[in-house]
Structure to design on (354 residues):
């Protein structure tokens, strides 16, 4: 296939609900007819080539950390870069589902063979069945870099473990030359593996901050255990807690938790409070929100959550199930678009073909 056909097929497949529908669009747009399976293999192989090039660090970035300029309240212009990391679940094909599909395919072949007996050549055997997963969902780990105005973004994902996610961080830090940024801020959820991987990278991201939304989730979870689902007194208590840690700092927040626990006698409610206190105590160094307020830094990981949705939009949906490597390939293609590397990738492919 020519690179032009490959690029068109990849673009159409990312915006279509299925490979069959994307194939119909390709036929209308170019007059080229491809079978559904051929189309699928073509697109997924391109995504796997993207992953191989990224792992070999062959793709260049068209922006650097020094391009991420922002004006502060005092009028001084600085360079500021954010790092986000999260896990997102995608649907995968289990071994049981693969077996059922195999049985149906063999039954269809038998019916077709009886119908066409004596006419034409028999079809070849089915290809060897690939191993399915043990669970219906697989976690993809996403790593993203972005600036204050969201004009520059880099988004990548992996189906492998935390160490490989750390490798994606290192590649981004190296390629973006993050040492040239005056301010490097990591906004993440409370997963220990994320903080561990970020702390192992150099140059360091300081501050490493817990996303305020994730903290709010834990506060409101404890509030529901203490006061019930919609008690106004409970809502007011949670709002006071969150306001204290956001504007005053950790100590006033912690003091309010201690006061509430001293007045709580129910073992179930004390357990809920203990869980919240244990959660925040482990992440105390990640809760300096007053510093963010003073500096004008974000405290929410909205851009990272948005990346999770956009990168996986093609692989999620009713009835969709993927082999994990094929899902990763589709996410890699979407990552090119979200990172403004689409044109750079096809230029790279042209250089390879020359």
């Amino acid at each position: 296939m020519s690179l032009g056909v490959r690029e068109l097929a990849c673009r159409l497949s990312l915006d279509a609900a299925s490979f069959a529908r994307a194939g119909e669009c390709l036929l209308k747009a170019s007059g080229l007819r491809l079978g559904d399976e051929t189309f699928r293999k073509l697109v997924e192989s391109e995504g796997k080539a993207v992953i191989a090039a990224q792992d070999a660090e062959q793709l260049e970035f068209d922006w650097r950390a020094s391009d991420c300029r922002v004006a502060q309240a005092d009028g001084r212009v600085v360079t500021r870069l954010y790092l986000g990391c999260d896990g997102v679940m995608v649907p995968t094909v289990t071994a049981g589902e693969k077996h059922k599909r195999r049985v149906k395919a063999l039954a269809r072949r038998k019916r077709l063979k009886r119908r066409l007996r004596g006419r034409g050549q028999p079809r070849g055997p089915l290809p060897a069945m690939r191993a399915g997963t043990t669970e219906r969902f697989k976690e993809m780990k996403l790593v993203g870099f972005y600036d204050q105005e969201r004009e520059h973004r880099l988004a990548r994902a992996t189906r492998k473990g935390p160490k490989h996610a750390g490798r994606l961080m290192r590649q981004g830090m190296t390629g973006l030359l993050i040492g040239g940024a005056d301010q490097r801020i990591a906004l993440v959820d409370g997963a220990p593996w994320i903080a561990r991987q970020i702390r192992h990278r150099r140059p360091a991201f300081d501050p490493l901050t817990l996303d305020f939304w994730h903290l709010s989730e834990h506060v409101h979870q404890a509030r529901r255990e203490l006061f019930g689902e919609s008690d106004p007194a409970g809502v007011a208590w949670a709002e006071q807690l969150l306001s204290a840690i956001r504007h005053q700092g950790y100590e006033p927040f912690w003091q309010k938790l201690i006061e509430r626990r001293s007045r709580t006698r129910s073992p179930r409610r004390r357990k809920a409070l203990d869980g919240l206190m244990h959660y925040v105590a482990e992440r105390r160094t990640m809760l300096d929100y007053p510093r963010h307020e003073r500096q004008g830094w974000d405290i929410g990981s909205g851009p990272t959550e948005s990346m999770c949705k956009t990168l996986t939009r093609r692989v999620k949906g009713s009835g969709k199930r993927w082999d994990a490597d094929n899902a990763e390939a589709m996410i890699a293609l979407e990552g090119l678009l979200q990172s403004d590397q689409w044109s750079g990738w096809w230029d790279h492919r042209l250089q390879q073909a020359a």
